[in-house]
Amino acid sequence: MAPAQWKFDASDWWLEEHGLIMEKPTFPLPAGKYLVTGDRDVATVLTVHPKDKDGNQRWELADGATLCDVTHLGCRSARYTPAKAANACSPANAPTKGFPVNPGAAMPAVNGCHKQDYTVLIVVGLPVTH
Q1: Rounded to an integer, what distance in angstroms lies between the CA atom of residue 101 and that of residue 114?
Q2: What is the pTM of this model?
């Protein structure tokens, strides 16, 4: 149990760019409109559409913005899941060098794990609901 009261999941864990284990994000993002930024020059609206009949969810940025425009380049994270045996994928296998991860660089591979890299969108506003 983490000090913030979330429980570590050994079969699906996350590491952030400084090499710290982080709380697992909630997926999927609910349908709606979000004001997002990369904390640089661009802030725009991200529209997350409802799931289609196949369960896929389309995302759309307004004003011609790109994902790079609204991604905080310094913030990196990765999701690690077992490649084979569940007990082979452990944060104890994570390298101790290479942190913090450079902006735009991939998170490190961890022996025994599949890895999916993520970058961070900063949500700075939500629509008013009545």
Answers
A1: 18
A2: 0.79
Write b or e for each residue in 94-127: b if 16 or more Cβ atoms lie within 10 A of its Cβ, otherwise e.
beeeebebeeeeebbebebbebeeebbbeeeeee
Q: Hey, what are 52's tokens?
A: 């289609």
Q: What is the pLDDT of residue 119?
A: 82
Q: How far apart are CA 89 and CA 19, in angstroms?
A: 15
Indicate the domain borders of the chain: 13-26+60-122
Low-confidence spans in the chain with pLDDT less than 50: none
Task: Find, among 1, 13, 17, 3, the residue nearest to 119 by Cα.
Answer: 17
Q: Exposed, middle or buried, 38 (CB in 10 Å: 0-12/13-18/19+)?
A: buried
User: CA neighbours within 13 Å on the CB side: how many for 89?
Assistant: 19
